[in-house]
């Protein structure tokens, strides 16, 4: 069979894929190398091979290299191969179309080497110790060697492709279906095995508006009307004017809200999930007969693998679509990110809008029995990239669309900060409307009359007040002062404003108190009911210390406060005392200087205050450490 000139130096790839080199042209047309469908099949084969190799590498890293957990969990056994099947299938389709026009050994050689190179590179993307260019060159070298090997074993390779590909695709589909079925069966069994609930036990709804700082909430005096619905809800709630998060970012803050422990007592950190050393609020509610459901917009630290799902019988944390399947693989996630940047799309495909979360919550409720429920809702729309839907995207921007392309670690100009804050405020207004929609939906179902509703945020955000935009990089008030409202019709008086500073660490103790579980001692801290019921002040002991903590994130810019090491702080009276990772101290009078612009630590008049605050911070850290040791031994 003749070939075009100029290809004499290439491996003979017709024989690689043909069963018999001496077949006629008519016979050749039925072989794997001469039909477009066979080129697609070849792509799917390498997709299966690359997916299996990446799964094997991740499992090896988890079990042998002691990585603490599997991101995406055990779903990687089907999601990663499916992502590679989609990727390599599309490449195979493209090459099949090219084959119709430019068939020949050159195209086949490029296809074979390309499939192998991309497959190896996709696996090596999971190993960060090599430079990206080194991984690319290594992948190309392996691909060239593999091409020569396959050229020497044409018949065996052809049989392998046809024998393995379609059964392997079927196995991926069956595995994915089995995982979905397993989740449904586990939920049914958990509901069936619930113990009895206390008669007239109230429902509990905990709503966390992720990244919403009190400074941009009109309920707290912000000049923009970002939260008119929250202001109306405040008329039937207790409003805490000075609620303080335990940490300026998602995972440790949520972990504190779920366990009553401070971040340094918990395992939860940037690359470490929340472990089972302490019981969570959802576990305690489930153990008392509550049906528990979590509906989470935070697609990353809200994923089950980070441990916030513990105790929830039903838990949803990410959308399932083409982009999220592609994101399961290291290579696919990079392609999605590049596509989003090219298309000027900032919103991650895993992110669920508040409206979608509301629908999921309300759709889930009618299937529940007459048991009380505990629902955790997390809205993520106010998080970077601050991309609310119309008309909220331009609600506070009069002249031009707000900036959205800011990334962590970038410096922002004054005009960029204004644009980012415009978009952020629009996102808060959108969440405010969706929060009202959720409460209306619960009311229509008659499920608000006997329901405790808690609305808060896990942390705030900085907009240049201390040199950066975003959160998780310092302990200043803009990143830790959050809204907090508590409502329980007929049991909690409405329209009360509490000016005392409180910590979100007290939320678990508050919930079990209001639910009447008689088990407040299972959570550290004290019930916030002491702030609207003076008869409980003595019964619930001393106030919780206002401790704040953050650990550095690897690779942070040196100009971030948190880049210097672990930061700890305590708020006592009018003072906020901060100890940086380099042991430098800061002191702010947050009554007269709420934006913490003037550091008072160097003034001689404040030496006594510094000594008292050092002692208070040390005592609080030591006391909570003793509580950790006692609780860990009790609940393991």
Description:
With 636 residues, this protein is α/β, with parallel strands linked by helices. The protein has 16 helices and 15 strands. It folds into 2 domains: 165 residues, no CATH class; 342 residues, Alkaline Phosphatase, subunit A (3-Layer(aba) Sandwich). The strands form 3 sheets. Strands 1, 2, 3, 4, 5, 6, 9, 10 and 11 form a 9-stranded mixed β-sheet that branches. A 4-stranded antiparallel β-sheet has the order 12-13-14-15, covered by helices on one side. The N terminus is likely disordered.
Keywords:
12% strand, 636 residues, 9-stranded mixed sheet, 4-stranded antiparallel sheet, single chain, Alkaline Phosphatase, subunit A, alpha/beta
Q: How are the elements arranged and paired?
A:
Blueprint: H1 13-17, H2 25-28, H3 36-63, H4 76-102, H5 105-124, H6 132-152, H7 154-192, E1 203-209, H8 228-234, E2 238-244, H9 250-259, H10 281-287, E3 291-296, E4 314-316, H11 322-326, H12 330-342, H13 354-364, E5 373-379, H14 414-444, E6 451-456, E7 462-463, E8 469-470, E9 481-482, E10 484-487, E11 496-503, H15 507-514, E12 546-550, E13 567-572, E14 575-579, E15 585-589, H16 607-635
Parallel strand pairs: 1-5, 1-6, 2-11, 3-4, 3-5
Antiparallel strand pairs: 2-9, 2-10, 6-10, 7-8, 12-13, 13-14, 14-15
Helix pairs in contact: 3-4, 3-5, 3-7, 4-5, 4-7, 5-6, 8-14, 13-14
Number of domains: 2
- The CATH architecture of the largest domain can be named as 3-Layer(aba) Sandwich
Shape: globular
Secondary structure category: alpha/beta
Any idea of the CATH class of the largest domain?
A: Alpha Beta
CATH level-3 fold name of the largest domain = Alkaline Phosphatase, subunit A
Largest sheet: 9 strands, mixed
Spatial separation of the terminal alpha carbons: 73 Å
Overall pLDDT, averaged? 85
Low-confidence stretches: 1-33
């Amino acid at each position: 069979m003749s070939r075009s000139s100029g290809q004499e130096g290439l491996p003979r790839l017709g024989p690689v894929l043909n069963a018999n080199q001496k077949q006629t042209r008519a016979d050749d047309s039925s072989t794997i190398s001469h039909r477009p469908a066979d080129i697609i099949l070849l792509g799917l084969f390498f997709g299966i091979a690359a997916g299996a190799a990446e799964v094997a590498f991740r499992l090896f890293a988890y079990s042998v290299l002691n990585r603490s957990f599997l991101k995406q969990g055990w779903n990687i056994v089907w999601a990663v191969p499916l992502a590679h099947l989609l990727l390599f299938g599309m490449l195979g389709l493209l090459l099949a179309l090219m084959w119709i026009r430019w068939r020949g050994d050159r195209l086949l050689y490029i296809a074979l080497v390309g499939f192998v190179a991309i497959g190896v590179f996709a696996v090596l993307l999971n190993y960060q110790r090599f430079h990206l260019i080194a991984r690319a060159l290594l992948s190309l070298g392996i691909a060239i060697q593999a091409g020569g090997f396959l050229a020497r074993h044409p018949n065996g390779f052809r049989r392998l492709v046809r024998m393995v590909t379609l059964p392997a695709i079927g196995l991926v589909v069956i595995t994915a279906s089995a995982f979905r079925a397993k989740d449904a069966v586990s939920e049914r069994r958990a509901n069936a095995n619930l113990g009895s609930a206390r008669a007239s036990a109230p429902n509990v709804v905990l709503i966390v508006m992720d990244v919403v700082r009190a400074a941009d909430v009109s309920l707290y005096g912000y000049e923009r009307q970002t939260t008119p619905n929250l202001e109306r809800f405040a008329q039937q709630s207790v409003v805490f004017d000075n609620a303080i998060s335990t940490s300026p970012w998602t995972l440790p803050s949520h972990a504190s809200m779920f366990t009553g422990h401070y971040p340094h007592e918990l395992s939860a950190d940037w690359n470490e999930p929340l472990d089972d050393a302490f019981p969570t609020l959802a576990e305690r509610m489930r153990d008392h007969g509550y049906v528990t459901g979590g509906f989470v917009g935070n697609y990353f630290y809200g994923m089950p693998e980070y441990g916030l799902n513990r105790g929830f019988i039903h838990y949803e944390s990410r959308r399932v679509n083409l982009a999220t399947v592609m994101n399961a693989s290291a290579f696919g996630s990079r392609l999605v990110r590049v596509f989003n940047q090219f298309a000027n799309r900032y919103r991650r495909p895993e992110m669920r809008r508040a409206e979608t979360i509301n629908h999921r919550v309300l759709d889930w409720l009618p299937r529940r029995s007459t048991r009380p429920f505990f629902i955790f809702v997390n809205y993520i729309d106010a998080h970077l990239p601050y991309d609310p839907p119309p008309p909220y995207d331009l609600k506070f921007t009069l002249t031009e669309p707000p900036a959205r392309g800011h990334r962590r670690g970038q410096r922002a100009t004054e005009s960029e900060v204004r644009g980012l804050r415009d978009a952020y405020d629009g996102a808060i207004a959108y969440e405010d409307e969706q929060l009202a929609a959720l409460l209306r939906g619960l009311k229509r179902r008659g499920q608000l009359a006997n329901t405790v509703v808690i609305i808060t945020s896990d942390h705030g955000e900085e907009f240049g007040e201390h040199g950066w935009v975003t959160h998780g990089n310092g302990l200043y008030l803009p990143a830790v002062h959050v809204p907090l409202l508590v409502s329980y019709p007929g049991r909690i008086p409405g329209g009360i404003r509490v000016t005392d500073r409180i910590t979100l660490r007290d939320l678990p103790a508050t919930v079990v108190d209001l639910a009447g579980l008689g088990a407040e001692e299972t959570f550290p801290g004290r019930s916030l009911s002491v702030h609207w019921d003076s008869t409980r002040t003595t019964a619930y002991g001393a106030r919780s210390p206002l401790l704040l903590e953050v650990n550095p994130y690897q690779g942070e810019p040196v100009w971030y406060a948190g880049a210097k090491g672990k930061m700890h702080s305590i708020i006592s009276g009018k003072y906020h005392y901060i100890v940086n990772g380099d042991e430098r101290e800061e002191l702010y009078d947050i009554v007269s200087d709420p934006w913490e612009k003037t550091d008072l630590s160097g003034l001689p008049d404040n030496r006594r205050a510094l000594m008292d605050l050092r002692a208070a911070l040390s005592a609080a850290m030591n006391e909570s450490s003793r509580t950790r040791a006692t609780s860990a031994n009790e609940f393991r």
